[in-house]
Specification:
Layout: E1 5-8, E2 11-14, E3 19-22, E4 25-26, H1 31-42, E5 48-49, H2 50-57, H3 65-79, E6 89-92, E7 96-99, E8 112-116, E9 120-122, H4 128-142, E10 148-150, H5 166-173, E11 177-186, E12 189-198, E13 206-213, H6 217-231, H7 250-263, H8 268-284, H9 290-305, H10 310-327, H11 332-346, H12 349-362, H13 367-379, H14 383-396, H15 401-409, H16 411-414, H17 417-430, H18 435-447, H19 451-464, H20 469-482, H21 486-497, H22 506-515, H23 519-532, H24 553-562
Parallel strand pairs: 8-10, 8-11, 9-11
Antiparallel strand pairs: 1-2, 2-3, 3-4, 5-7, 6-7, 11-12, 12-13
Helix pairs in contact: 1-3, 4-6, 4-7, 7-8, 7-9, 8-9, 9-10, 9-11, 10-11, 11-12, 12-13, 13-14, 14-15, 15-17, 15-18, 17-18, 18-19, 19-20, 20-21, 20-22, 22-23, 23-24
């Protein structure tokens, strides 16, 4: 199946995803303007009559010719002029419009976008995590196959336990097709019913039923993956089996997928539950590496959330990574989390880069690893490569909250304020249950000088993070920037009152202090953050919230120390 992707000048237009890029940045265009562009480039330079365009762009609505003229003008403004000064869209008097310029399709652009929905679990005692675990396993085995772009597990987690029509899910996720199914546990056996539901008319539906013992579950997943790929005319390009070849025990697998389910909540309460389930999995199958990597990842997340002292988190995470790599030296997830441990604990940028390169060599299509690589590149100052990696993560998972926050945080990556704001709004609309989405919206709103909207978004982020310390500090920072400082000072006082019995990120407090124009207090807190190995300190030189301190001797010495230049 060949994707409808067109290139002209500095532009790349993906008609299936309805996305237009200019030099790697998304161009913000209304759906009608994108539909008009599709009709014009598809004609290959031929004149498209006005009546045909109106029927194509407004298929179910009677509109006046003036609507078409306005949409053409909007498209022209977005595209600008060609190098020779001519417009990309030419008017042909009394006939219609034509696209003026060479258009090419990239070689090898044979791709189908796919999402695997969490399986519906049937029967007594049904738990949604089992269905999510099966979907996760199938996603892992399909990711990286030539011709398939598979949405990651994080993009479908919110559908676990939900009754969503497959075609509606395909529409929301922006994919060509979805795989959905049911699973029923009967003692030591699984009964699966699986279907491929196309969104596009040129794909054919497919269904299959399987009855297998648990010990054969992983070979069943391999067979399913091969069938799905075959139905989509993609070629298998790598082995499905993990390098270790270890088949986990059933009880361990169930505990592990419970952990993945709760970890996806991305708040302290969910991650704490995940640690318990990952721990159970390690006890039930000590030889399995994946739960140890899950534990390491969860400890890093707790440190970022401010739920545990960082040095304690780094020690526990490092022990888990070591155990994971003893069991499976090729486990990409373990190498990825190892990169962040050496960066946050040791400020060893080169070692972090090497670990991420190892992870990428093992799973080059992992959107999470590509995103982490992009974040590291941006922190190190390589903006162009960072943008490429973060854009890849968003192309794979348009709902990725972390990628959306990265776009808003790193302005050079996110593009113009209008683009960041549009992307952030879409992320919140599609995933209104995640604090990260509202944080990204707040950052984008501040970049667009919409302070009240930023404060409103951060209040919701505080709620969704269960009054998390980091989100409360970010709310205080936004309040200090946008209005009277009274509430910001009250929040800051409450946070510092927690320091007696909890870890409160000194870095986050420093950001608030600086917004309140307390420069020396902010510098004191940043030095405390460095001593505590607060993970946020590695953002020091990239965080625009601290731009007012650049040039201060104490600040610059701290930057040099963290970058290994002192």
């Amino acid at each position: 199946m060949r994707a409808r992707v067109y290139e002209f000048g500095p532009f790349r237009f993906d008609a299936d995803k309805a996305v237009l890029w200019r030099a790697g940045a998304v161009v913000s265009l209304a759906p009608k303007a994108l539909a008009l562009l599709h009709a014009l480039v598809e004609a290959g330079g031929d004149v498209v009559p006005k009546a045909d365009l109106m029927a194509r762009v407004w298929p179910d609505t009677a509109v006046q010719e003036a609507n078409l003229s306005v949409t053409v003008a909007t498209l022209r403004r977005a595209l600008g002029r060609r190098d020779d000064g001519r417009s990309w869209v030419q008017t042909v008097p009394r006939r219609g419009y034509r696209f003026d310029g060479p258009v090419k399709r990239p070689p090898g652009a044979e791709v189908v976008t796919l999402a695997v929905l969490p399986f519906e679990v049937l029967g007594p005692g049904a738990e949604p995590h089992v269905g999510l675990g099966l979907a996760d396993a199938l996603i892992s085995r399909l990711t990286g196959l030539e011709g398939l772009l598979v949405r990651p597990t994080a993009a479908v987690t919110h559908l676990s336990g939900q009754h969503v029509a497959p075609r509606d899910a395909a529409e929301d996720l922006g994919v060509d097709a979805v795989v959905s199914g049911t699973v029923r546990q009967e003692g030591e056996r699984f009964r699966l019913s699986v279907q491929l539901v196309p969104r596009r008319l040129d794909l054919r539906p497919w269904a299959r039923q399987i009855d297998a013992p648990f010990t054969d579950l992983f070979s069943v997943e391999d067979s399913l993956a091969e069938d799905v790929a075959g139905q989509l005319h993609a070629r298998l390009t790598r082995s499905f089996l993990a390098p270790s070849g270890h088949v986990p025990k059933r009880e361990a697998w169930e505990s592990y997928v419970r952990g993945r389910y709760f970890e996806a909540w991305l708040n302290a309460a969910g991650v704490s539950k995940a640690i318990g389930h990952f721990g159970e999995a390690t006890l039930r199958d000590p030889a399995w590496a994946a739960p140890q990597a899950g534990l390491a990842d969860a400890h890093v997340l707790l440190a970022f959330a401010g739920a545990v002292p960082p040095r304690e988190a780094w020690g526990r995470a490092a022990e888990c990574v070591e155990k994971a790599l003893e069991r499976d030296p090729e486990l990409a997830a373990a190498h990825a989390v190892a990169a962040w441990i050496v960066l946050f604990r040791d400020w060893d940028w080169e070692a972090a880069r090497r670990s991420l390169q190892r992870a990428l060599a093992r799973e080059p299509e992992s959107h999470v690893i590509r995103l982490l690589h992009g974040l590291l590149l941006d922190l190190a100052g390589d903006r162009a490569e960072a943008r490429r990696e973060i854009d890849h993560a968003l192309e794979t998972d348009p709902l990725c909250g972390l990628a959306a926050v990265a776009q808003a945080f790193f302005h050079e990556v996110g593009g113009p304020p209008e683009r960041r704001l549009t992307d952030a709004h879409r992320g919140v609309e599609l995933r209104p249950d995640r604090a990260l989405g509202y944080w990204g919206l707040a950052l984008a709103s501040l970049g667009a000088e919409q302070g009240e909207r930023a404060v409103t978004a951060l209040r919701r982020a505080v709620e969704l993070s269960d009054d998390g310390i980091v989100m409360r500090a970010q709310l205080a920072w936004a309040l200090a920037r946008t209005g009277p400082p009274g509430e910001a000072r009250r929040i800051l006082k409450d946070l510092e009152g927690l320091e007696v019995h909890a870890f409160v990120s000194p870095y986050q407090v420093a950001v608030v202090r600086l917004a309140l124009r307390e420069r020396e207090a902010a510098l004191d807190k940043l030095e405390q953050a460095a001593e505590a190995r607060d993970p946020w300190i590695v953002f020091l030189d990239a965080d625009d919230a601290l731009a007012g301190l650049r040039g201060e001797a104490r600040f610059d010495r701290l930057v040099d120390r963290i970058r290994g230049r002192a």
